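Revision sheet: structure tokens.
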Amino acid sequence: MATKKAEATVEDKLRALYDLQLIDSRVDEIRNVRGELPLEVEDLEDEVLGLKTRMDKLKTDVETINFEIGAKKNLIEEAKTLIKKYTEQQKNVRNSREFNSISKELEFQELEIQLAEKNIKEFKAQIEQKKVVISGTKEKLSEREAHLKHKKSELDAILAETEKEEAALLAKSAKFQKDIEERLVTAYVRIRENVKNGLAVVPIERGASGGSFFTIPPQVQVEIASRKKIITDEHSGRILVDPVLAEEEQAKMEKMFAKL
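Predicted:
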């Protein structure tokens, strides 16, 4: 007949919860080292992409304006050809009506040339303005790309050092959670989300809850040390463990961390 597995004592549960806290705190430390770096890299990538898109648009605008300049130059050449043609025709007119009609055509072509030349001048001014913007954008793009390269290399170095350990710790965290009853894990996760630094299980330090200045009454400290029931701090809601248990578990977990 198979022997029934002994039910975990309150002390076993406290040790398991504190071990889980130590693992999760180690993951938090790794992520704190990375800090805002991944977001910085992402923002820089977006900025570089935006600047490249702007550069492409500016270059396209310059190409379009150059095309317009080319069209205006062609129009001027056509107008000059017509002026030459009408000037020759004017020499052979038979009456004043024909002369006036050709004169109007000549005047119109002259105006077309003047307008086209004015347009070309305006287009060239636009190109110069866009070249100034292109130059500034190019300089900024070059600076942001260099900054992005530096930040990426910084992030890659941190990831290379910590990625493997983080993955191993997350796997350990999931495994440890499975060995703790669900209601305690739920409570632990809820407390962890609501307290500073994600510390849901803390030892008593100098008569107060770890990371807190609120003193714990001596009678409650004795109860915590007896490890007969799970006690939470009335101010922060954190689960409390005695210093001896905490030291023992820290030593045990440090050995585990060293092997990761």
